[in-house]
Amino acid sequence: IDKEVVYEKGTNTLTARWETAVCKVKVDIDGETKIIEVNYGDTYVLPKDEPKGYELRGWSRNAGNVSGEQLTNPGTAIKVTSDLYFRAVIVPKVCTLKYNMNGGEGKTSQQTFNYGNTVTIHSETPKRTGYRFLGYAVGDSVLIEYMPGDTFPKDNIDKEDIYEKGTNTLTARWEKVIEYTVTFHPNGSSESQEVTEKVRQE
Q1: What is the pLDDT of residues 36-49, one digit of tens each?
Q2: Residue 42 and which of 18, 29, 118, 166 are 20 to 30 A apart at CA?
Q3: 3-state secondary structure the chain
Q4: C-alpha span between 119 and 112 (Å, rounded)
Q5: Mean pLDDT of the 10-22 span
Q6: pLDDT tens across 89-130, in order?
Q7: Sign of the C-alpha dihedral, residues 61, 66, 69, 73?
Q8: Which of 163, 167, 164 is nearest to 153 (CA)?
């Protein structure tokens, strides 16, 4: 610099200059950590998006599970004045399988299974007087897709739709059976014999 200018001026003033401090917010979701830079004093809103197949219970300030810990709700705005760490507390979403006997009788206790897993359909065959059990359809569909003892959901379908729906119902489908009795007298005998047959309704 030109020192002569400084010397000639006699009195000089040094003015402090500043830039906004940047804080780092670490967000851990199912083992994947993201680092977000936030200016000191600004707010950061905790994410509300749930990982696929999981329910987001809240956000923890601890890296590990702590009994009785108070969680911060998703969507909460946090004023940032230092580096912060948040871990998503998630649990697998639970799917439910219900049964509709559709006029028949059978085991109807609902079953639960975690998102991404499967469950074994009740093995008992439903019964209905005057009808033959054809199998189970999903919901209001008439397409028979499952039988007692099968795995739900099966492998050759788009399981994501089942998982995302959360609650699914298996509806029993039936075919009406007509019974008729034939009485005949063999070889002209006075003795009669009755035969009962069942046929499908056309």
Answers
A1: 999 999 999 999 99
A2: 29
A3: CCHHHHHHHCCCCCCCCCCCCEEEEEEEECCEEEEEEEECCCEEECCCCCCCCEEEEEEECCCCCCCCCCCECCCCEEECCCCEEEEEEEEECEEEEEEECCCCECCCCCEEEECCCCEECCCCCCECCCEEEEEEEECCCCCCCECCCCEECCCCCCHHHHHHHCEEEEEEEEEEEEEEEEEECHHHCCCCEEEEEEEECC
A4: 8
A5: 94
A6: 999 999 999 999 999 999 999 999 999 999 999 999 999 999
A7: positive
A8: 163
Burial (CB count <10 Å: 0-12, 13-18, 19+), residue 68 = exposed
Altogether, the residues listed in the chain come to a count of 202
Compute the distance between CA of residue 113 and CA of residue 134 in angstroms, rounded to an integer.
Answer: 25
